Structures are given as structure tokens and as C-alpha cells.
Amino acid sequence: MVFLFFVFFLGTLIALLHHVNDDLPPKLLLVSFDGFRADYLQNYEFPHLQNFINEGVLVEHVKNVFITKTFPNHYSIVTGLYEESHGIVANSMYDVATKKHFSDSNDKDPFWWNEAVPIWVTNQLQGNRSSAAAMWPGTDVLIHNTTPSYFMNYNSAVSFEERLNNITMWLSNSNPPVTFATLYWEEPDASGHKYGPEDKENMRTVLKVIDDHIGYLVQKLKMLGLWENLNVIITSDHGMTQCSKERLINLDGCIDHTNYALIDASPVAAVLPKNERETEVYNQLKACDPHMNVYLKEDIPARFHYQHNDRIQPIILVADEGWTIVQNKTEPVLTLGDHGYDNSLPSMHPFLAAHGPAFHRGYKHSTVNIVDIYPMMCHILGLKPQPNNGTFGNTKCLL
Ligand SMILES: [Zn+2]
């Protein structure tokens, strides 16, 4: 009798737990390892990341947006918009009308971000849910008067472990529950710049540390009972290519630098001509060096989706892969690796891996656009997406 009662009790309990699980809102953790070039996955060992992929999905190439820089692409991931539409068109910007400047160390003015609504804001406006963020670009800014309920002010000195510990704490016990969380880490971008992606030895070292971070992330989620019900996306903003001191484009050799302001330098230079000298400046730059393309704003190729925004300057210079634009040959070139180049170059592409109840297990896909990630995330979270440039049909196959 006691035994029967026990079985009945257990059955009820399991049914109840099941029911509770069904009622849990879907949750998503979005992780970015800055500058994780797609083919690192083929050329280096990632035992922890491979385990994650084996039980989930892999997209081998993510076609990112032009210019292939950090702030612009991180904002495209969370808005589904091209840069001309979300307004973060470079890591260094200047707005002629307001005379405002933007840089990666001066990024807190909502003015720059308010042309779009990122998913962490939408998530908090549609229902009784919170968002949480550990240093994803823009998450410490009041965008449309809102930050994530839980966030950290950007500080590159804070360790991966501390960022992750905050995220898992917020995912575990918050009311209203955190259903969207995001985590950013500066590597392998920093090492890619410093050593260049062809420096196998140094890249192997930093990529092993990243794989260990992924191992720690999975272990921690399992330990806290978050793993089974949480959807996790691991991706990046751009790749990296090898540069050289031998491949410099020297602007001072072609044009007097008092005739223009250089808003952003390399590999996509944003040029603001002075004193209505646009035609003269353009002609001088056009004849300057065969290793870069020079465009008037109205002639920027349509495939870049990089034209219709006041923050895009009247002339842009696009260096060929591996070439660096400098104003003066005596400028020290400190980086052996860079990104920002044409987004059709495979070396500029990151990858995407995902795991969780929303995703297939053991599924591989060749390519998606970075703007297609946003509508997929909205679908997973049950959010009505903001207008965007993505196509859910392109990422639906991962679910
Ligand atoms: Zn970088």
C-alpha cells in the first residue's frame, strides 16, 4: 500500500515537474568570441567546442556585414540590420550635423545606437522577462532609454570567469526571469591583431584558452542545472587576415592631409574632404594606389549595403585584403593581423555553433548571413521581431 502510494506520489511529482518545464519560457544565451575566423575550426583543435557542436548545430561560415569591424557586426547580430540601417557604421564615427564623435572608448551616447532596437530591449518590452549582458557592445548604453535589467559596464580587465559567473547567476535566479543573456570576450581578436592569424604557435595558444573557456561554460551550465533547457549560441563578429609592413598604402604620398579629415583609417578609410574640395580629393585618392578601391559615397557597390546613412562619409577607401592604409609612412604599424575588409572574403567570416532544445543535434550547414541570426533568435524567444534585413527562412533549418 505504502509502495503504491509512493509510486502514485512519484508519478504525480514527475507529471508536475514536466508541466512546470513546459511552462518555462524559452531561454537563450548568445556568446561572442571576438575575431574567431571561420577556418580556425578546421585548422586547430577544439575538443570542448567540438563536443558542443556534436550535440548541436554548426554553421561553417557566417557572411557578416560590411565593414567587417567589431561594433558594427555585433549590432547587426542583435538587430538583424545592415550597418546603414542600424547606424553603427564603424568603430570610429563622426556626425557632421551634431559634430559628435564615436569611438570604442567613447561609445556611451545613445544618439549612436538609437537608430535600431536591439533584441535585449525588445525582450524586456514584450512580456514579463528580463535581459542580462556581460559586456556585449552597446549593452551598457541607455538605448531607447533602456539597458538590460542586469549588465556590466565595459571593462576589458574583467575575466571571462567573472563575466560568466554573473551571467549564470542572473539566469538562475531573477524575477522576472532572464530569458535573453549575452556574453562577450575579446579574444582571439586581440591576439589575431598582435601576431597575425598565420602565426600558428601563438594562435594555437590563445585558441586553446578559448576552448577551455567553452569547456568551463558548459560545465558550469550543467552544474547549475541550466544546460538542458537553455539555448546557447556561440558565434563571432568577423575573421582576421595577415597584414605586413611591406603592404602599406601611404596617403601622404598622394594628397596633402590638410585637405581632408580621416574619420576612420584602415582597412576602410572614411574621408571627409575640407573646404568643398571633394572632387579634387577624390581624384587624388583615386590615382593613389592600385591596392585600394576609392568610392564616392553614391558609388559604393550596392552589395555592401553601406550608403544610406549620414554617418557614412563622402569618400571611402577600401584596401585590398592584407593591405593597410596609413596617413604617413612613419606611423608605426603595430598589427600583423586585421579585419574590416570586403565581407565577401572568406577570411573575414566567423562561424556559428548552437546547442539546446530549440536546435537540431548533429546538424551541419554551410552558410548563413549574420543578419539572419536575429529573426531566428526572436523566433526561439517568441518575440515579434523589429523590421530587419534578415530572413528567418535561411536559419530555420537549424531549429
Ligand atoms: Zn579587431
TrEMBL record:
Belongs to the nucleotide pyrophosphatase/phosphodiesterase family. Hydrolyzes extracellular Ap3A into AMP and ADP, and Ap4A into AMP and ATP. Ap3A and Ap4A are diadenosine polyphosphates thought to induce proliferation of vascular smooth muscle cells. Acts as a procoagulant, mediating platelet aggregation at the site of nascent thrombus via release of ADP from Ap3A and activation of ADP receptors. PANTHER family: BIS(5'-ADENOSYL)-TRIPHOSPHATASE ENPP4, ECTONUCLEOTIDE PYROPHOSPHATASE/PHOSPHODIESTERASE. It is a single-pass type I membrane protein. It is found in: Cell membrane. This is Bis(5'-adenosyl)-triphosphatase ENPP4. The keyword Kinase does not apply. It comes from the Eukaryota. Keywords: Blood coagulation, Cell membrane, Disulfide bond, Glycoprotein, Hemostasis, Hydrolase, Membrane, Metal-binding, Signal, Transmembrane, Transmembrane helix, Zinc. The gene is ENPP4. The keyword Hydrolase applies. GO terms for molecular function: bis(5'-adenosyl)-triphosphatase activity; metal ion binding. It comes from Loxodonta africana. GO terms for biological process: blood coagulation; positive regulation of blood coagulation; purine ribonucleoside catabolic process. Its cofactor is Zn(2+). Its EC number is 3.6.1.29. Residues 1-22 form the signal peptide. The lineage of its organism: Eukaryota, Metazoa, Chordata, Craniata, Vertebrata. InterPro entries: Alkaline_phosphatase_core_sf (IPR017850), Phosphodiest/P_Trfase (IPR002591). GO terms for cellular component: plasma membrane. Gene3D superfamilies: 3.30.1360.180, Alkaline Phosphatase, subunit A.
